[in-house]
Amino acid sequence: MKPAASLTLVGAGRMGSALLHGWLKGPEREISVIEPSPRPEIRALAEEGRIQLNPAPSESSIIVLAVKPQQFAAVSEQAKAFVGPKSVAISIMAGVRLAQLSRRLGTERVIRSMPNTPGAIGQGVTVFTAPEGAKRTDLSAARELLAPLGEVHGPVDEAMMSAVTALSGSGPAYIFLLAEVMAEAGVAQGLPRDLALSLARRTVEGAAALMGESGDSPEALRKAVTSPGGTTQAALDILMDTGGMPALFRNALSAAANRDRQLSQEAD
Ligand SMILES: NC(=O)c1ccc[n+]([C@@H]2O[C@H](COP(=O)([O-])OP(=O)(O)OC[C@H]3O[C@@H](n4cnc5c(N)ncnc54)[C@H](OP(=O)(O)O)[C@@H]3O)[C@@H](O)[C@H]2O)c1
């Protein structure tokens, strides 16, 4: 059997597969994938010789952990076999801290990142953190290897990761909720449910695309569609009133960030 590749992916689920497909489009490198139940497309890549699937363990220069956080304790035993003194471990597991990664994997060279769901289609945003004094090569490896998920920011202070989780990690769910509640409100105004849902979906998709393309700030875009005394203004007066969206979001993000801090403590 060939030795394990220099880049090892542990967990080829939704996010892991998105990473892998991105890497395969980049510079040629030997890639190993550790995955107990590989999807057919991952098996096909192994049959084509583009990756090694579940090779015998040996030291890998970079190991990327893309399993569920609750699988980490069990997976770390197996993953350790691919980690040597010079290995860099990059985690996309929500809430697993740098110290926990180091302790379980037996290397100081660890990167912790927080992607979000649109990463599965390369449209996400990922923030990463690294130990103080991390090698520049480790930081650039993280930037390069996380790029298939979308935009990458970092390194940030690890203390910021709970806020990152609350904003961009959980954020897509807030936008899906927005589409849901807009559709419900349309139904309440007498629209058929199907039409209300289509209008809400397309409005969220279109507004996001416009924001992405224009480069203007969200505030400038909002002001541009708000004529004084008009219909949008009437709605925004309610949405932005005391107890409206600004206050609701402050409370919601605070609850998410607190929950993240609690979860990482429980994981100790
Ligand atoms: N999806 C998101 O939007 C999102 C956002 C932010 C962060 N993340 C983080 O990204 C990570 C991956 O999420 P995901 O949505 O890609 O999860 P997923 O689809 O469940 O992928 C995890 C994969 O790891 C496999 N696995 C289980 N045990 C393993 C082992 N011992 N060795 C190797 N692989 C093993 C799982 O196989 P089985 O299915 O057989 O268990 C599964 O295929 C999570 O830690 C999550 O916190 C995800």
UniProtKB/TrEMBL annotation:
Keywords: Amino-acid biosynthesis, Cytoplasm, NADP, Oxidoreductase, Proline biosynthesis. It catalyses: L-proline + NAD(+) = (S)-1-pyrroline-5-carboxylate + NADH + 2 H(+); L-proline + NADP(+) = (S)-1-pyrroline-5-carboxylate + NADPH + 2 H(+). InterPro entries: 6-PGluconate_DH-like_C_sf, NAD(P)-bd_dom_sf, P5C_Rdtase_cat_N, P5CR_dimer, Pyrroline-COOH_reductase. Residues 158-263 form the Pyrroline-5-carboxylate reductase dimerisation domain. It comes from the Bacteria. It is found in: Cytoplasm. Its EC number is 1.5.1.2. The keyword Protein biosynthesis does not apply. SUPFAM superfamilies: 6-phosphogluconate dehydrogenase C-terminal domain-like, NAD(P)-binding Rossmann-fold domains. GO terms for molecular function: pyrroline-5-carboxylate reductase activity. NADP(+) binds at residues 66-69. Residues 8-95 form the Pyrroline-5-carboxylate reductase catalytic N-terminal domain. GO terms for biological process: L-proline biosynthetic process. One of its GO terms (cellular component) is cytoplasm. Pathway: Amino-acid biosynthesis; L-proline biosynthesis; L-proline from L-glutamate 5-semialdehyde: step 1/1. Its main location: cytoplasm. Belongs to the pyrroline-5-carboxylate reductase family. Catalyzes the reduction of 1-pyrroline-5-carboxylate (PCA) to L-proline. HAMAP family: P5C_reductase. This is Pyrroline-5-carboxylate reductase. The gene is proC.
